[in-house]
Design goal:
AraC_XylS_family_regulators, transcription regulation, Jelly Rolls, Homeodomain-like_sf, alpha+beta, 5-stranded mixed β-sheet, Arc Repressor Mutant, subunit A
């Protein structure tokens, strides 16, 4: 699989809640931080989204927003509108004037992800992904959202499973867009995959994670000099090439340990360590405990 597919598979996203959000007139709502990825797609009208410590951002019809970890935020019909506290729930929400047809409609919700590798998501993705309908075609996201809204409004057998799969597709589609936030690339996996040379190197790492990669070897895959590759990789990804490789290997190791059923020798061989001893030493250095202790800990429990 490609790096993006690998990331989604490792995070094992599944639905926590989703709902239709509507509003009319003047309104505002404030939510506390949530330790889960959040998303929203504006169906009709528009609103203003203000993340904690950030300037308000206008969301127009067709815009999609993904927050890998949802901070405290406010959402309002206009900047400066009074906000009331909101409580996350899976039921449809109406803001503002309760009478009359809404002038604002949005699909909103959140995901649960594999908590073992949740830090991986935060390290490899920007804090906010905003796909603007005015800058790119969001038709595919809108069609997926229409199916999600249909499942939210219906009570059909198997609805939870279908809704979960649709939200996974929505997440992949949003990340596939690889937008550039704030007019410049944000260090992380999306920035790396936007660069064709770095994308080749990242693809090679994910295709052969057990290989004895060196910076020089990855530079050859990228078609660059060693020094130029190392500098460009560090700028785009926020870490050195071998550090990224080590982090990815540890993510795969945590995943394997949380599932169980594999010996340390097998895990070590699959992710590129010469022996179980070498793997255990590297794991303890990075995780602060032995692989066995991690596998027995609550942190390794599969959701």
């Amino acid at each position: 699989m490609d790096p993006l597919s690998d990331l989604i598979a490792l995070l094992r996203p599944h639905t926590a809640l989703s709902k239709a959000i509507t509003g009319r007139g003047t309104w505002g709502v404030r939510y506390a931080a949530q330790d889960v990825p959040g998303f929203a797609l504006v169906i009709e009208g528009g609103c203003w989204l203000t993340l904690a410590g950030q300037a308000p951002v206008r969301l127009a019809a067709g815009d999609f927003v993904l927050l890998p970890s949802t901070p405290a935020f406010e959402m309002a019909s206009s900047p400066g509108a009074a906000c009331v506290p909101g409580v996350p729930a899976g039921l449809p929400v109406r803001h503002g004037d309760p009478a009359g047809d809404p002038d604002f409609r949005m699909l909103g919700g959140s995901f649960e992800i594999d908590r073992v590798n949740a830090p991986l998501l935060l390290a490899l993705l920007p804090a906010m992904i905003h796909v603007r309908a005015g800058e790119r075609d969001t038709g595919r996201l809108s069609r997926i959202a229409a199916l999600i809204l249909d499942e939210c409004d219906a009570d059909r057998p198997g609805g939870d499973m279908i809704l979960g799969r649709l939200l996974e597709v929505l997440l992949v589609e949003a990340l596939r867009e690889q937008p550039v936030a704030g007019g410049g690339a944000v260090a992380g996996l999306l920035a790396g995959m936007r660069d064709p040379a770095l994308a080749r190197a990242l693809g090679a790492i994910h295709a052969e994670v057990r290989a004895s990669w060196t910076v020089a070897g990855l530079a050859r895959v990228a078609g660059m000099s060693r020094s130029a590759f190392a500098a460009r990789f560090g700028t785009a990804m926020g870490c050195a090439p071998i550090e990224y490789l080590a982090r990815w290997r540890m993510a795969l190791a945590r995943h394997a340990l949380s599932l169980g059923g594999k010996t340390l020798d097998r895990i070590a061989e699959e992710i590129g360590y010469e022996s179980a001893s070498a793997f255990s030493t590297a794991f303890r250095r990075r995780m602060g405990c032995s692989p066995g202790a991690f596998a027995r800990s609550p942190a390794a429990a599969v959701p």
